[in-house]
Amino acid sequence: MTKVALLLAPGFEEIEALTVVDVLRRATITCEMLGFEQTVTGSHGITVQADALWDGSLEGYDMVVLPGGMPGSAHLRDDQRLMDALVKMNKENKWIAAICAAPIALENAGVLKGKNFTCYDGAKQGIFSGNYQKETVVIDGNIITSRSAATALPFAYALVEQLGGDAKTISDAMLYADVFGK
What we know:
Layout: E1 3-8, H1 14-26, E2 30-35, E3 39-41, E4 47-49, E5 52-53, E6 63-66, H2 72-77, H3 80-91, E7 95-99, H4 103-109, E8 116-117, E9 131-132, E10 137-140, E11 143-146, H5 152-162, H6 167-173, H7 176-180
């Protein structure tokens, strides 16, 4: 069974985190929200109950997802346990996904070296080792990145697809193409 960890640091972007959790669960992919605390407040004042506390380990997970938002992305970047876990996941060629400002954590972990990526426009100044692409979603090997809260649904669908789920059926049921023409 495929298992995904989504990290919730204080100041996370709510749309980016909860959209991913919602879409993955619709795809019947196990997605656990690991919080820096049991209840974590996002950048817009919404408090979320984590499924479990972040204990520094991503053992047993096939993918980790880092939502953006500030100061959430900075908290992710500054957590050495997460940096170590990202390096380990990258060596194991497991999926690493980040949206908006969260690729700054991937930069700090050194997993963007030689990779194409995207991020929030304002975050790219702090990323020096990858190749920035101004695209909605960029997939390069085991790294999946996206740009902002506005791209949360296409990002979530890309995650489902990469994990072998049926993203089209889910996006059709959510009327994504009817609304956005894609």
